Amino acid sequence: MITSFLGVLFDGLAYGMLLFLISVGLSVTLGLMNFINLAHGAFAMLGGYVCVLALQRWGLPFYLMLPLAFLLSALAGLLLERVLYRHLYRRSHLDQVLATIGLTFMAIASANYFFGPMQQPVQVPQFLSGQISVAGVDLNLYRGFLLAAGAALTLALTLALERTRFGASVRAAVDRPRVAEALGIRVGLVFQVTFAVGCGLAGLGGALGVQVLGLDPAFPLKFIVYFLLVVAVGGTSGLKGPLYAALLLGVIDVAGKYYIPEIGAFIIYAMMVILLVLRPQGLISRK
Amino acid sequence: MFKHHLKLLASTAALLLAANASAQAPLKIGMVVETSGAFADFGMQMMNGARAYMKAHGDTVAGRKVELIVKDTTGVPDVAKRVAQELVTNDKVDFLAGFGLTPSALAVAPLATEAKKPMIVMNAAASVITTRSPYIARVSFTLPQVTAPMATWALRNGIKKVYTLVADYGPGIDAETQFKKTFTAGGGQIVGDVRTPMRNPEFAPFLQRIKDARPQAVFVFLPAGEQAVGFMKGFAERELDKAGIKLIATGDVTEDGVIDAMGDAPLGVITTQHYSVAHDSAENKAFLKAYAEVAGTKQRANFMAVGAWDGMAAMYEVARRLNGNIDGDKAMEVLKGMKIDSPRGPLTIDPATRDPIETIYVRKVEKAKDGKLYNVEFDQFQNVKDPTK
Fold it and tell me: What residues make up the domain containing A161?
């Protein structure tokens, strides 16, 4: 009884961390820049395809593929920021939604054209597959790896945002762009870099996530609900809210499916409704 | 007077021309398929199969040039209904064909009855479909039809305790019901069952639950594609096989089109179905050759492509027998009892139910010399009908 509970808890935390990893890039662009990027999933999908190409076709090792997925998605984000996104910063949220959902459809069609509509072969690397047994609880290695990767990433991002000069510039540029400009912060450049990082994180999350979620051209739309769920429930200030939200939703979803499988699939949505009613601004909101 | 004659002659000639033109108008086949969205590979497989048939057998039948008009359902039943309506009223098609998903087929069924259009179901496999319109004929399979042999085979091979896991929609429930029925009637015991949601990227908790229940085997039906891949990965990762739990399934789970995306996880899985690319016959070789000419060698054919191939064969035969004049009622008479030499083996359209009667094979996933996995047939049940009708 207790071991099955521990097993469920571990799987739930790992699933939550996976949700966090594929959504964290959106928290950055939405939370920090107040920009609604519904094409987030397209960048995650790009990371996924980089993962497939790097591992299958170019024969790169797993640990080199991850930074590559980050860099290429960030580069794509940078390019699109220059030609498209920067014109949308000052537009209404509706315009942002319309433009980026259009971009998502274009990404889906492109992926369909270049890679075909089928599922891509993505495999967890050999040294991360299988399970180990700790005190009678079966722990899946790749899920353990996801937990560690998510924790490391959260730590790195928090430090970068709160302890570095660049982090301070980002916060200044978001809160008081004109004052920041007057102080010599190049707001345009700061936004550009932040946006690229957000897209890079999406790509990284995609590359980590497709091992569990699978990958085909419909990826951006299939998982858009989950990105938005995490960010909506977590609130948009900082990274802690989305992290807690993702972990909470992950544990509840897995526990629901394990203990009451008849209604297991609805629990995550029911939980979202409850949390949003209780805390409409998200778990952790800006004062 | 002369002028009047001339006029008459001209109008007669015009009439004759028109009549002649209609005899040689193209034979239009409206393909209602999924070419975008989560089930886009269903449409791709069916279109490849249909085009392969035209490549191998020519694009003219009974003096009429065959024209495929492709409409995308995007996987949504309402869209399927709308595009089928367009095909009937605007394009004036002779046949409706395709239908990867059961809900789409069900949505179009009333339209087939109303317009008296023969509707050839090339894939969708819920049992109920052919009962919804007398103008529907199916050349694929039904889920109870492939599920019952799996239960029988399991009983014969010493499996007595089974957990079932199916996708929570029409075909899934069909499979679950039939498996339980055949398995318990033969003395087997169902130790648990679960229906997984259609939008469900996470199988881990369901798999853990099954592992903790310790059955001898788990019976699975999931729609081919993403869900099957996700399940298979989870099954291997969670090491249910090492816990002594066998995986038995309908062929959808280790379907040829997606098996390449699964790694070595499905090795040894036992499934029952009507078609495997590894099937050894001249018809299958001809099919695979034509398929490769249309789709290249990178994409593997699967049972949906075979369904489309056989659907085309059926429509060609109807056109030949009716000399190119397609009438809904006459077409259905021709289809009832039709025999097709399919790449899967012989196939008869049951005159009573308009569902296929065919051989169901028991297969095991093995690695071939080319390093790829195949469903290798090692046992069979002949002339299997849909057991629910």
Answer: 2-278
